[in-house]
């Protein structure tokens, strides 16, 4: 599998080469991979910011414990969950199904009601945890696509979401920054790339129940 080779190649890049930029065609491929990600109910209850603006990333770096990846990478992906619990996004999703698949709304309105009922049964804590987890499914697709294109990435939780929300105006959009990923190309000076990948053995990680 080429995928396994690429996964062994990738690592959480600590030092990017700021002189190397991702071509627009490859950036489009990364965005398409994120768009095609799995999600609960197919709802895609998140929004993704792709930030190239250097001045904006300088501000975000201050809210990211001054980690250089934020500004040195080619682009910064910011995965955000929606904070509103109203049914607007579900209604839009059902309408999208109808338009995309040519199905009458009357035939699938029950599915929308089912999703609303299922999500409304969650407590606030459960709902927020669920909506934040959705962003990690999309992040996973980004990391796989980066590896496939031999583009470096570094998934990061080391930032202050409240400051990101303020800097990017996310609160006004009923969004919350959950996880981020600078993407670009590794610096030759990044010594981390030469370390052997450390993972659990198959025996300790998996339980095969036959």
Automatic annotation (TrEMBL):
Q: Does the keyword Lipid biosynthesis apply?
A: no
Q: Keyword set for this entry?
A: Flavoprotein, FMN, NADP, Oxidoreductase
One of the entry's Gene Ontology molecular-function terms is:
oxidoreductase activity
Supply the InterPro entries for this chain.
NfsB-like, Nitroreductase, Nitroreductase-like
Q: Where are the transmembrane segments?
A: none
What residue stretches are annotated with the Nitroreductase domain? 8-185
Q: Which cofactor does it need?
A: FMN
Tell me the protein family, please: Belongs to the nitroreductase family.
PANTHER family, alphabetized: NAD(P)H NITROREDUCTASE YDGI-RELATED, NITROREDUCTASE
Q: What is this protein called?
A: Nitroreductase domain-containing protein
Q: Species name for this entry?
A: Robiginitalea biformata (strain ATCC BAA-864 / DSM 15991 / KCTC 12146 / HTCC2501)
Top-down, what is the taxonomic lineage of the species of origin?
Answer: Bacteria, Pseudomonadati, Bacteroidota, Flavobacteriia, Flavobacteriales
